[in-house]
Write a sequence for this structure.
């Protein structure tokens, strides 16, 4: 099933070369978790990583469904 | 004395008298410095009911004990006064180089009183302070004024000044320093303009001494390491400035769009940080000695928006970009340059134009009043309006009063998204509940600089703080308000504090601040005592606010009654009523938001 992946700010560097913008999509097996979705990108997932599934922060083990959007970025603040 | 100089400079612009005064050590200890000491003086010397643009209002420039030290980000100053926009307290802060140079004059504070008969500027070269004519500079923009003042005084000096907006008493006029840094909010530039004070030039070599040099050096290293992830080349703030944030807020559906009529913006990909970095960034520009370097030196090389300067940062993008429905970053950047040159707050300027756009499109403002159509997405007219505002030219005269007064005049107050008449910064509180409580209770009107709780709500570190829950938000908001009061009083930048927000050790920020201040000033204080000082500052500011007559802690109708129509927060409003009683309880205030006698006694503020 297809999942949209959006990598924000410095995580953009982990998108496949030639990706236009900050979004790509991946195919995963049903039952996959957010962690599975992000695995191919080689992002250094650590305590500062924030994951949003359709705009809501979730743990990495959350199961995804067809058509979901996963966004990831490093937790830094400032506006 | 270490850290502090323990001296202030009082400048009476009416009588042209300048005098140096001691600051009582106990005041510095109780109120830390910067924002804290400034509110002590403002509260004692200015009637909170005063007309903010009258000579009876005072304008205070204040540095903290850590300004001009090697403490990371130790280079901020605060401007404290009564605001003409809100009628409440104003405390706006800025970095750049000016704050350190001001501290090196040997004075911690400048207090401006009265009103000069003719335009003047103040030149302080250590102990030599002089009021000089600025008649030849009146009407000049910020870059021209800055260059002229440096040419007339000392090329190595630093300048804070107002542009035409401040002179014309525009209610969102800023005080600009080092050309592009802004003490932006609440119309502090209009107060300066009302005093006929065009600029302040500072120079000196009086670096404050540390009580313990070696401990300070070691601690600065420790802190740099602890928060270092954001201080390295390749970190988000250095790479993108705060301009990376629109993607984050858009993802969570809290990016103000079309004057808060939506929470996501389809043009977000063309107004974000990577676009800025790829197309217009010359290089990151740090404030003096700052290891973070979030500032942007940028240039739009060609086309109708060509220009060079600093910015844009997140707030500017959310106001002129998504707020006004403009998806062209060059146009947003140009609007930013104009605000810097004319001396205006980008948030209130952009959000006021956004409110006018909504009112025009809904037929509330006749086209004849504006002189032309003013639609969302019309970048050229937006930029034209920025210029008209600074000169109060035509419809710019209405816009110069801010969105609250504009919407009220045209009979549609519901269009203005403000608290205490100050425009919201770029986080929609319908999708970030704690931000609603922050805006509603802020002593200075809506501001993220009063305690940016959205970052703990968004990131859930160290404690998971669901954006949409209201539980526990009273404690969260009070804790952030005090933390920001602490940072602002110390002379550091809140970006250092935000780094610590993500630490699992909740007391680490006050602990590090207590250590920094102890090694700087020699005054021993526990983290708990330091936090108590911050709470004292916040409560005294509250007392000023209440005496100024701005007593209602609420949000505009749109936030309380109109659900967000889109994005992850679709269908939600802000549930302020669920948080406010809890907040008052945490604060030790009564059900009307008034500090109790017991609380005031506890803080020594009776």
């Amino acid at each position: 099933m297809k999942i949209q992946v959006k990598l924000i700010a410095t995580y953009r560097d982990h998108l496949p070369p030639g990706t236009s913008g900050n979004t790509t999509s991946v195919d995963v097996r049903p039952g996959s978790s957010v962690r599975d979705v992000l695995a191919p990108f080689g992002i250094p997932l650590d305590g500062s990583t924030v994951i949003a599934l359709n705009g809501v922060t979730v743990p990495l083990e959350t199961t995804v469904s067809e058509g979901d959007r996963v966004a990831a970025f490093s937790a830094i603040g400032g506006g | 004395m270490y850290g502090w100089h323990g001296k202030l400079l009082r400048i009476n612009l009416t009588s042209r008298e300048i005098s140096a005064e001691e600051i009582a050590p106990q005041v510095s200890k109780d109120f830390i410095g910067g924002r804290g000491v400034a509110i002590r003086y403002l509260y004692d010397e200015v009637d909170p009911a005063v007309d903010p643009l009258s000579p009876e209002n005072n304008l205070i420039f204040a540095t903290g004990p850590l300004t001009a030290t090697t403490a990371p980000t130790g280079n901020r100053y605060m401007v404290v006064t009564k605001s003409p926009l809100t009628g409440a307290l104003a405390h706006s802060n800025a970095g750049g180089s000016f704050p350190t140079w001001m501290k090196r004059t040997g004075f911690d504070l400048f207090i401006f009183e009265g009103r000069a008969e003719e335009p003047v500027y103040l030149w302080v070269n250590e102990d030599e302070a002089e009021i000089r004519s600025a008649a030849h500079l009146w009407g000049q923009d910020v870059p021209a004024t800055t260059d002229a003042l440096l040419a007339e005084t000392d090329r190595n000096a630093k300048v804070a000044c107002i542009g035409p907006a401040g002179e014309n008493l525009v209610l969102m006029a800023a005080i600009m320093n080092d050309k592009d840094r802004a003490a932006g909010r609440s119309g502090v530039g209009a107060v300066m303009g009302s005093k006929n004070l065009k600029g302040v030039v500072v120079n000196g070599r009086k670096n404050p001494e540390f009580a313990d040099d070696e401990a300070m050096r070691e601690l600065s290293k420790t802190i740099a390491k602890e928060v270092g992830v954001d201080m390295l080349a390749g970190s988000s703030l250095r790479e993108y400035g705060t301009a990376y944030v629109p993607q984050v807020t858009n993802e969570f559906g809290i990016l103000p769009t079309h004057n808060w009529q939506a929470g996501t913006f389809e043009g977000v990909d063309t107004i974000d940080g990577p676009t800025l970095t790829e197309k217009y960034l010359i290089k990151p520009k740090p404030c003096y000695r700052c290891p973070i370097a979030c500032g942007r030196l940028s240039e739009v090389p060609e086309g109708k928006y060509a220009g060079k300067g600093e910015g844009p940062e997140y707030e500017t993008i959310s106001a002129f970009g998504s707020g006004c429905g403009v998806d062209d970053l060059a146009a947003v950047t140009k609007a930013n340059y104009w605000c810097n040159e004319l001396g205006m707050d980008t948030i209130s300027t952009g959000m006021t134009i956004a409110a006018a756009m909504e009112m025009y499109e809904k037929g509330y403002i006749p086209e004849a009043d504006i002189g032309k159509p003013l639609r969302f997405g019309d970048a050229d007219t937006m930029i034209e309006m920025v210029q008209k505002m600074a000169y109060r030219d035509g419809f710019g005269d209405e816009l110069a009063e801010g969105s609250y007064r504009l919407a009220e005049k045209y009979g549609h107050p519901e269009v203005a998204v403000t608290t205490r008449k100050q425009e919201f910064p770029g986080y929609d509180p319908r999708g970030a509940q704690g931000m609603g409580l922050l805006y509603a209770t802020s002593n200075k009107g809506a501001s993220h600089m009063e305690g940016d709780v959205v970052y703990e709500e968004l990131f859930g570190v160290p404690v998971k703080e669901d954006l949409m829950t209201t539980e526990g938000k009273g404690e969260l908001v009070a804790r952030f308000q005090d933390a920001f009061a602490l940072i602002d009083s110390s002379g550091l930048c809140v970006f250092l504090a935000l780094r610590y927000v993500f630490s699992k050790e909740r007391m680490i920020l006050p602990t590090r601040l207590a250590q920094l201040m102890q090694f700087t000033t020699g005054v021993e204080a526990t983290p708990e005592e330091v936090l108590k000082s911050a709470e004292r500052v916040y409560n005294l500011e509250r007392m000023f606010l209440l005496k100024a007559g701005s007593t209602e802690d609420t949000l505009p109708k749109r936030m309380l009654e109109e659900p967000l129509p889109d994005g992850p927060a679709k269908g939600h409003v802000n549930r302020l009523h669920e948080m406010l009683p809890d907040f008052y309880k945490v604060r030790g205030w009564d059900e009307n938001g008034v500090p109790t006698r017991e609380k005031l006694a506890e803080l020594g503020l009776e």
